[in-house]
Design goal:
By secondary structure, this protein is α/β, with parallel strands linked by helices. Helices cover 39% and strands 22% of the residues. It has 2 domains: 179 residues, Rossmann fold; 159 residues, 2-Layer Sandwich (Dihydrodipicolinate Reductase, domain 2), CATH 3.30.360.10. It contains 14 helices and 13 strands. The strands form 2 sheets. The protein has a 7-stranded mixed β-sheet with strand order 4-3-2-1-5-6-7, with helices on both faces. The chain has a 6-stranded mixed β-sheet with strand order 9-11-10-8-12-13. Strand 5, helix 5 and strand 6 form a beta-alpha-beta unit. The radius of gyration is 21 Å and the shape is globular. Bound molecules: L-homoserine. InterPro entries: Asp/hSer_DH_NAD-bd, HDH_cat, HDH_CS, HDH_short, NAD(P)-bd_dom_sf. It catalyses: L-homoserine + NADP(+) = L-aspartate 4-semialdehyde + NADPH + H(+).
């Protein structure tokens, strides 16, 4: 039975997932037993469209490529236009909500309310929004469980690089005592480029031009983005609730080219490092620029690439590195959540 998807938000990441689902339709069906149909799309800017029998994905992608509103979708007598996000979640026949809205990471809204509405209706959610996992992880995961819903959020830390499922599944049985990471691509790119001679401003505008930076790059350069990711890692991997305000945070705004050059002359590199440590009283996390030996594996991660080191009592140090952003990579993070949803659904049916 095909999974019925509703996209809440339909920007680059949502379109990225839909394109992957189109491109890999046969592979996903053959290898994963995963079939999907899109029944609804609701986007605050583009409008909304719903057909309980399924929408034409190519037409949806074509409309957005041409920057046309969803009102121009050529449907059938069944097609409904104009439902808002919450109506789409509650009133359509979707069983999986793809939550990819522009969400305020501080409040987690509107994504938190979207997740709540979905779980209350017994519907599952996959999201790449950091807000709900950083702000309301405990409440939302309980709610999902009580309502028999699946909640996937792999893409919230390091996009499609499995920074959450690696420790949660593959490293199970270990005690993870510390997690250290380069969790923000924008700042790593900027520091790398500043070492090569670019000014802070030039490096930032290049990071923006490449699409690495958040809509408001303050979140990147002040370390807030890395701080939210540290909170998610504490909540999800360390199983220890943390708030962003618990995490001391210093960004890279005070780092100059001279400081970077001076560090290199001493065999060091300055990098924005997030560290989450288990202590006797809970978990402590900090985000700040650190001088790392040039030979340190975290210091050798180039440009916008991210890296994360899990200190495991049994497996030892495990380093994972890969993209931390990108439409295809983040689209993939939603796909892997969807594949896990399908596996669980199939296991329950058997
Ligand atoms: N602005 C973020 C970064 C994107 O630079 O890593 C992914 O959260």
């Amino acid at each position: 039975m095909a999974v019925k998807l509703a996209f809440i938000g339909f920007g680059g990441v949502g379109q990225g997932l839909l394109q992957i689902l189109q491109d890999k339709k046969e592979k996903l069906k053959q290898e994963e037993g995963l079939e999907t149909i899109v029944v609804a799309v609701a986007d605050v800017m583009k409008g909304s469209v719903y057909d309980p029998e399924g929408l034409d994905a190519d037409q949806l992608l074509q409309l957005t490529r041409e920057k046309k509103p969803l009102d121009e979708y050529k449907g059938t007598a069944r097609t409904v236009f104009g439902l808002d996000s919450l109506e789409t979640i509650k009133e359509t026949n979707a069983d999986m909500i793809v939550e990819v809205t522009f969400t305020d990471v501080k409040t987690g809204q509107p994504a938190v309310d979207h997740c709540k509405a979905a779980f209350q209706a017994g519907k599952s959610v996959i999201t790449t929004n950091k807000g709900p996992v950083a702000v309301s992880y405990q409440e939302l995961s309980k709610m999902a469980e009580e309502n028999g819903a699946f909640w996937g959020f792999e893409g919230t830390v390091m996009s499609g690089t499995p920074a959450l499922r690696l420790p949660l599944e593959t490293l199970r049985g270990n005690s993870i005592e510390q997690i250290t990471g380069i969790l923000n691509g924008t700042t790593n790119y900027m520091l790398t480029e500043m070492e090569k001679g670019l000014s802070y401003e030039e490096a930032l505008s290049q990071a923006q031009a490449h699409g690495y930076a958040e809509a408001d790059p303050t979140s990147d350069v002040e370390g807030y983005d890395a701080r939210y990711k540290a909170v998610i890692l504490s909540n999800v991997v360390m199983n220890s609730p943390l708030q962003a305000s618990d995490v001391a945070c210093t960004g890279i705004t005070q780092i100059t080219q001279d400081m970077l050059t001076d560090a290199i002359e001493r065999g060091k590199r300055i990098r924005l490092v997030a560290k989450i440590t288990r202590t006797e009283t809970g978990v402590e996390a900090v985000v700040k620029p650190e001088e790392l030996d040039v030979s340190n594996q975290l210091a050798t991660v180039p440009g916008a690439t991210n890296a994360i080191l899990f200190d495991c009592d049994l497996a030892g140090p495990i380093l994972l590195t890969g993209a931390g952003a990108g439409l295809k990579e983040t689209g993939f993070s939603l796909l892997i959540d969807l594949i896990h949803f399908e596996r669980q659904r199939t296991a329950v049916r058997q």
